[in-house]
Amino acid sequence: MDEAQEQMAENASMGQNRFGQFGEQMAQFQNMAGAEEDDDRGLPALNILFFGAGCTLMFGSFLGMFTMFFSFSFADCLGLVYVFCFGMVVAILDAPVQSGANPLLVMAEQSISKYFTFLTGTTGKGTCLLMSACLLACLMFSNFDSTLLKFLEFWMVGGVVFVGGFGISIGSKKTHDLNNVREQILNSCPGGVHQVESAMCPYALTFPPDNGSGHCLTMEEFNKFINEVAQCDEYSHEDLVLIFKSLRQRRPGMHKSVAKLTMEDVESWLEGRRILI
């Protein structure tokens, strides 16, 4: 009897130790995910609209899938599966939760950023919502005769189309503004990238060239650089988050952090194609 009690106590102690180790690992994971940046989504109000539009697509497509599956319209049902998936992607990217609070959500965001980079930007999300809403409307209006369902779908799809078009317009404007900054930097530094690199050095105070990682610009330093060198207006913090995220996505594996902008990111931006925000 005593041996059995000792064995149970030992097993309980081992279980508590393992549970404690698991809790510490989860806390470390959350700290690593959240330590890089408070929130890399940029515009809070627009994020809420994107999240609502994504959930609306999921609800509308699920309603259609459930009905079409039992009416044996499998081809149209498959199209609604795609709409549901796109809505879920947008909802995951703009879920109104603290960045890094949910490990599963963090892993999902990182996977989407790695394989579907276009969908992480404001322009990409707006395009995705607009196209998915149009597909949802075509499939629902061609398969349902109920006036009530058509009325509900009209308002749901109309709202998603509005959010998608709004996102595209904002993303296009910010993309145009960033391209103007790029041209101003190149005009201010006619010597090309090497002159830009020399001009960046005095502003790289947080990550100077002598720290072994090359000079990098934080958001505040980038703002000061474009204001004094290129004579451009400074960006807000929300705009800087979107810009840094877009510029860093030009380099593989740089989807997790937007804390600093390296010279490689700047060179890729100045010498490469136009970047969509």
Describe the structure concisely for a colleague.
With 277 residues, the protein is mostly helical.
Describe this structure in words.
With about 280 residues, the chain is mainly alpha-helical. It has 2 domains: about 130 residues, no CATH class; about 100 residues. The protein has 10 helices and 2 strands; from the N terminus they run αααααααβααβα. It has a two-stranded antiparallel sheet. Helix 5 packs antiparallel against helix 6. The radius of gyration is 24 Å and the shape is elongated. The N and C termini lie far apart (about 70 Å). About 10% of the residues have low confidence.
Give descriptors for this structure.
277 residues; mainly alpha; 2 domains; 10 helices; 2 strands
Please outline the helices and strands.
Elements (H helix, E strand, L loop, with lengths): L1 H34 L8 H27 L3 H20 L9 H13 L6 H22 L3 H42 L4 H8 L15 E2 L1 H10 L8 H12 L12 E2 H9 L6
Antiparallel strand pairs: 1-2
Helix pairs in contact: 2-3, 2-5, 2-6, 3-5, 5-6
